[in-house]
Design a protein that fits this description.
mainly alpha; 76% helix
């Protein structure tokens, strides 16, 4: 039920686009959501970055525990493909037409790419609050607040990375893949590690990539090309 209700960004994007831009707006959103013909290097980035982040986080987490592993896969390894498909639908398709398809280009028409990413990242983080609160009710108020703040800051860093990828491709389809794949990899490697160090690092490390991208491409566009605007 929670994941089904999580399709709010998709429905909001469709409804508001239809009201504001009519059928042409819906066609444009569909075009970008099915834009799969992009350079192979961007697919490599979409699949490689989450995997690299997860492996580094898992490895450093194990080192912090002296090599003693508490790893226990949340789901059987044989369930990875159906779980990935589930994540692609209920997180990628359910959210990305709203976040990157609708909100980001409009935010970038008013703000530079970095500031637009901060705004979108905070909104994206707050969107997850019901999930975090629901799953941490027993932890107490203070740990829950720390989780909410940490989650939001981590998502802002990851949003900057997402903005870089979208601004270079304008492909919502690629963002759907990134979102679903990233969640699946995180679940199998980081969350299954049962280690706080690995989980914390997975939220912090995207900032290293984000800072590098800002310095290399500039906060104005996060890309060699003008940022997509609506």
């Amino acid at each position: 039920l929670l994941f089904t209700l999580g399709a709010g960004p998709l429905f909001a994007a469709l409804i508001v686009t239809r009201v504001v831009e009519g059928s042409e707006g819906i066609k444009d959103l569909w075009r970008r959501s099915t834009l799969w013909k992009v350079e192979a290097k961007w697919y490599l980035a979409a699949f490689g970055i989450p995997l690299a982040l997860a492996l580094v986080s898992l490895g450093l987490g194990l080192l912090s525990m002296g090599g003693k592993s508490a790893y226990a896969a949340k789901l059987p390894i044989g369930s990875f493909v159906p779980f990935l498909l589930y994540m692609l639908v209920f997180t990628g398709i359910a959210e990305e037409p709203g976040w990157r398809g609708f909100a980001l280009p409009r935010l970038q028409s008013r703000y530079n790419a970095e500031k637009a990413s901060w705004i979108l990242g905070i909104l994206w983080g707050v969107w997850h609050f019901p999930f975090i609160i629901y799953y941490n009710l027993a932890a107490g108020v203070a740990p829950m607040i720390a989780s909410l703040v940490g989650l939001t800051l981590g998502i802002v860093g990851w949003t900057i990375v997402n903005t870089w990828l979208y601004n270079n491709t304008q492909s919502v389809w690629l963002m759907i893949l990134l979102h679903g794949w990233g969640n699946a990899v995180q679940s199998y490697l980081v969350l299954s590690s049962n280690g706080m160090t690995a989980q914390t690092l997975y939220g912090v490390l995207p900032w290293a990539i984000a800072i590098f991208l800002i310095r290399k491409f500039g906060k104005e566009n996060l890309s060699p090309h003008p940022r997509p605007q609506k």
